[in-house]
Amino acid sequence: MTTALNTTASGWRRTSGMLAAVGVLALLFADLEITQVSPGHELLCMAQGFLGPDFSSTEFLWQAIANTLAFAWQGTALGALGGFLMAVCWQWRAVRAVAASLRAVHELFWGLLLLQLTGLTTATAVLAIAIPYSGIFAKVFGEFLEEANPAPAAALPQASSAISVFFYARLPLVWQAFKAYGGYRLECAIRASAILGFIGLPTLGFHLETAFREGHYDQGAALLYLFFLIIFTLRGWLRPVLIPAYLIAAIAWAPPVIHIKPDILIRFVTQDLVPAPLRHGGGLNELMPWLASLWQQQLWPGLWQTLVLGMGALLITALLSLLLFPLISPLFGTRASRVGGHGLLVILRTTPEFFLAFFFLILLGPSMLPGILALALHTGAIVAHLTGRFSESLQLRADAPTGLNRYAWEVLPRISPNLLAFLLYRWEVIMRETAVLGILGIHTLGFYIDSSVAEFRFDRTLILILATVMLNLLVDALSRSIRKRLRLKPGHGVG
């Protein structure tokens, strides 16, 4: 037993060292240049706007809030339904593959594709959220069902139908977990709905982007404060008995009517998404040079920049997590300092990475630095929060040292395996978000996807999105393999 424990300990240390080394190399290759001429002046203007938000001059404010909530509610409900149906068949490999593929494509990428079919409509926003969320719900719900106690199902008569076994012996065991995760996913959907404004949909993100790009920081701050208010009060107004009323109100406010002309759909699928050489009657002799050109000009640069930014962000995330988790740990500080630390982490993990990257782009200019900072601050706050909560279970001896010695010699060695597990769980999410930051102008895969959509080269769009899917699936598989080998399993809700 001692030998096994020592092997596991050396394993997570070696894995941590290798990931750190890759992160350092990524930062050496990353473009960290600050191109903004006067970032200090811009930061001062932004700070003045946040200190004096202007709620009165923000036009269409309440409509944007209503749209954000309506899209989130409908997208979450539809995604939960689809995920539940897939989770029932989670033992089938094909279902798991479909779910993984759906959740590997970011909501913004789904939105860009759906815009070509359904335009700037409710259906575009709802489906952009529901499609990837169905894959996420399927994974989580399926794992809940797999880990449920099998004894009640085994106790039923052998003649019981599969439907009876499911609804009477399996579903009741995980129903509370389903509801709890649904509430968390609704919070994520509100953030996703707001971000969809950056591709033109009428949510809070659309007006926030407009305000900040025009330098109206007081109006942008008002929008962001209202966004925080919605998220922070979610547990207060999200009551199970009111969910049907909320959903009915969401549908009544923004009916998800789909108007797609059959000829447009057929042309999009059979022509626009088909590689140009094949569409024009060419064969493999023309397709291969086309793919080689796409690889050289967009695929390889996009994959490389995505990996560099993502791995650099993972390293900074780890460092920030180590610095921030003592802010809420009962093993450090005072009650007042922990309250302040909790507030800071809540703000950082509530603000979407996309928003943070957008703010940093305004302050620092277009480079990888805004993306790395945004991903590290957001994910670092999440991992620090989870690590701080884990530290509550640690029991220190009566003569344990205090201050820095307590942190370095008593706490850090005991929380490090779990912190590594949290980071590995978030790794795939970091890579997924890294790709989509390209829509802001950072040269990751998302930059080339957005450019191909703007040029109506949807055949390239499809290949580039498939590349993001493969990258995310590979990172997810590698993460799961490492966690399994090291027997790291912090639990659900990390992703």
UniProtKB/TrEMBL annotation:
UniProt cross-references to PANTHER family, sorted A to Z: ABC TRANSPORT SYSTEM PERMEASE PROTEIN P69, PHOSPHONATES TRANSPORT SYSTEM PERMEASE PROTEIN
Lineage start: Bacteria, Pseudomonadati, Pseudomonadota, Gammaproteobacteria, Oceanospirillales
Keywords, alphabetical: Cell membrane, Membrane, Transmembrane, Transmembrane helix, Transport
Name of the featured protein: ABC transporter permease
Membrane topology: Multi-pass membrane protein
Source domain of life: Bacteria
InterPro entries: MetI-like, MetI-like_sf
Domain ABC transmembrane type-1: 343-487
TM spans (from-to): 71-90, 110-131, 151-169, 189-208, 220-238, 243-260, 303-327, 429-449, 461-479
Compartment(s) where it occurs, according to its Swiss-Prot or TrEMBL record: Cell membrane
GO CC terms: plasma membrane
One Pfam family of this chain: BPD_transp_1
GO biological process assignments: transmembrane transport
